[in-house]
User: Fold this.
Amino acid sequence: MRILIAEDDSSLASFVKKGLDAEHYAVDVSNDGEQARAMAGEFDYDLVVLDLNLPRLDGVTILRYLRTRKPSMPILVLTGRTKVEDRVQCLDLGADDYLSKPFSFSELSARIRALLRRCHLPAESVLTVADLKLDRVERKVERGGRRIDLTGKEFALLEYLMRNAGRRITRAMIIEHVWNLSFDTCTNVVDVYVNYSTAQVDRKKVSQLSAAIQVAFQQLGPYPAAAGQVPAEINQAAPAAISPAPEEIPDLAALRKELGQALAPEISRGEVTLRTGHDGLIISLKEAGFFGSGSAGVKAASEPAFSRMAELLAGGKYNIRIEGHTDNVRIHNAQYSSNWELSTARSTEMIRLLVVKYGLDPQRLSASGYAEYHPVASNSTEAGRALNRRVDLVVIGRHQGIPSPGVPPQDSRENAR
Assistant:
């Protein structure tokens, strides 16, 4: 569900947003009254948390406006005004609840859940497609009577697809709602995030999630792959690599030599390795060199090295599969609730950078998040775990070189599981 926080205190708004993000809501923040009114009027928020003391336009005026335009939108007033007269005025104007500052976040969260239960009709709070049921308030998903445990992003994606069943939606619409980003480039990031459900991560869970998302996609229309019926048995193999036409498959020996020269400092420090796999040349970017712990963004200090690599890749018509990998130490922070979600976020961030900043053709890129399921070293030691925390860019081609000493080729990863 999507919530708007209209609050002029930036630190307080950040605190509330962080708490609601952790509870898997999609949250927008506005520190300005006029902007808050425009956002609430334009978007279909499930709930608005409204401060009264906003610059440029006060909360009472916004409340009056929303009650004439969107009478059913739940509004919780969160304010420092404690007088009974203020509370009575807001409730008479149509506020659904009123909470004074200072407040406990646990109480705010409980009041939000109560409002969502009361203000959503049963048909709106429980979405159903075939035998798939999603409870938007209780945040539960069942298929055929069996519970499916989803991460926040999985739940948000599935909810959005089911809410828009029968409508034609775009990738940009999904990215804006599920990721709270503005993204107008024609990449296949959305397809990537849907297709990761068939990756070999957790066999039992992915079977259910894959079928669930396929059911939802069958109702949408814009994606041709959704036209078929949901299979009785879900194929558990890892996603197929890109299959370019034979004339497009390049010889990667020259590319490997150029990368070796351009990334020599990083290779010498063990931050990058180049090796050969079944599909082609593997450029392995280690977490220690390129990513902060538990973060998907490339470190500022590593941007020059990433740029050198990206410019070489942009110079040729390469087909590239980007794979996110982790060790087997479970992650859970405010942003990512699983190793798999972190590995997927890193691989999709690579897509975004390569397309938006370096101009690579999005049709030549794909990505997957594999979490800890494809190690290249033992997870029993810190050195081995450090090797496993990586993002691999697999450049598809005819490269037939010899794997680096001591590093197993990519197609032997299955034996290391």
